[in-house]
């Protein structure tokens, strides 16, 4: 039997749902290169289907359609069967049920983590910055075993310096990441605040471009949204773009502007110093 006859026989079996997935795939993998040489590119494209994420029957439905297209063009008789289609319907239903179940599980896990963070960080709602910290700015460091609460205390201090428009002191609290897209200066940081995450504009340019340049960072601890903001600060260690000495990335979202949480997000690395202590490295301030 020549290959073209064998192909026709296999395609009739496909159209009539008389061949299983493994048998068809094995035959196709073995002969597809030869088949490509004897049939048109359009016919080949319809037969050369990729596996479906739904399951084998969904894949076989696609192959069946390619088979029927080829057979009809050549006036080859066959009897259409719906077994693959019925199986594909079950696969899609199961797929979306499992997808919904995973979504609910992820949602529940996110809620659990949020509530856990909320409990741990509750102590920060009563935190007050030591007067000497505001009077004597400079690089802040923490012990190597510092946790989320201690890290967020640093962010509260940083926010307070911005609220007092002490941009130089705010930058001096931490390192600035040497690989950051921008080389941050006090003037640039100030423009990122009044420009709502768009640094580099003068106040006049920002007002003309965005309609306002009146944005101002305000105290986090005096903000009515402080519990939500503090709980929502994300500290994660699974980012590929961290540096060699970085152990986590902080996304400080909802930075308070004009007395309430905003869309502004500050990004920091948690960086280990050569002596084992920790500090933060400022990366960016922008609207996500």
How do the strands and helices of this protein lay out in sequence?
Elements (H helix, E strand, L loop, with lengths): L2 H13 L5 H18 L2 H7 L8 H18 L9 H38 L10 H5 L12 H16 L3 H6 L2 E2 L9 H9 L8 H8 L15 H7 L1 E3 L9 E7 L11 E9 L5 E10 L1
Parallel strand pairs: 1-5
Antiparallel strand pairs: 2-3, 3-4, 4-5
Helix pairs in contact: 1-2, 1-4, 3-4, 4-5, 5-11
TL;DR of this structure?
By secondary structure, the chain is α+β, with helices and mostly antiparallel strands.
What is the number of strand segments? 5
Average of pLDDT: 93
DSSP helical segment count = 11
Instruction: Give the total of domains.
Output: 2
Q: Give the distance, in angstroms, between the N- and C-terminal Cα atoms.
A: 64 Å
Please mark out the parts with pLDDT under 50 across 5 or more consecutive residues, or reply none: none
Shape: elongated
Order of helices and strands: HHHHHHHHEHHHEEEE
Oligomerization category of the chains in this entry = single chain
Strand order of the largest sheet: 1-5-4-3-2
């Amino acid at each position: 039997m020549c290959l073209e006859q064998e192909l026709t026989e296999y395609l009739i079996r496909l159209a009539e749902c008389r061949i299983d997935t493994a048998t068809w795939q094995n035959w196709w993998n073995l002969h597809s290169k030869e088949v490509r040489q004897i049939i048109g590119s359009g016919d080949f494209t319809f037969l050369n289907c990729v596996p479906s994420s739904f399951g084998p029957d969904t894949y076989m439905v696609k192959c069946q359609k390619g088979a029927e297209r080829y057979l009809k063009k050549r006036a080859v008789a066959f009897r259409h069967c719906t077994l693959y289609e019925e199986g594909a319907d079950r696969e899609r239903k199961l797929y979306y049920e499992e997808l919904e179940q995973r979504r609910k599980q992820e949602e529940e896990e996110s809620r659990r983590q949020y509530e856990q963070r909320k409990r741990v960080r509750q102590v920060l709602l009563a935190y007050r910055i030591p007067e000497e910290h505001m009077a004597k700015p400079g690089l802040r460091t923490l012990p190597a075993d510092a946790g989320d609460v201690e890290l967020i205390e640093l962010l509260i201090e940083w926010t307070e310096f911005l609220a007092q428009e002490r941009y130089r002191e705010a930058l001096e609290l931490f390192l600035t990441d040497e690989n950051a897209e921008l080389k941050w200066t006090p003037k640039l940081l100030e423009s990122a605040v009044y420009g709502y995450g768009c640094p580099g504009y003068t106040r006049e340019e920002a007002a003309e471009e965005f309609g306002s340049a009146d944005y101002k960072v305000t105290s986090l601890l005096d903000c009515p949204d402080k519990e939500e903001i503090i709980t929502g600060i994300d500290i994660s260690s699974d980012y590929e773009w961290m540096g060699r000495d970085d152990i986590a990335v902080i996304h400080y979202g909802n930075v308070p502007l004009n007395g309430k949480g905003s869309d502004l997000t500050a990004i920091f690395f948690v960086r280990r110093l050569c002596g084992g202590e920790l500090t933060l490295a400022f990366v960016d301030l922008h609207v996500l």
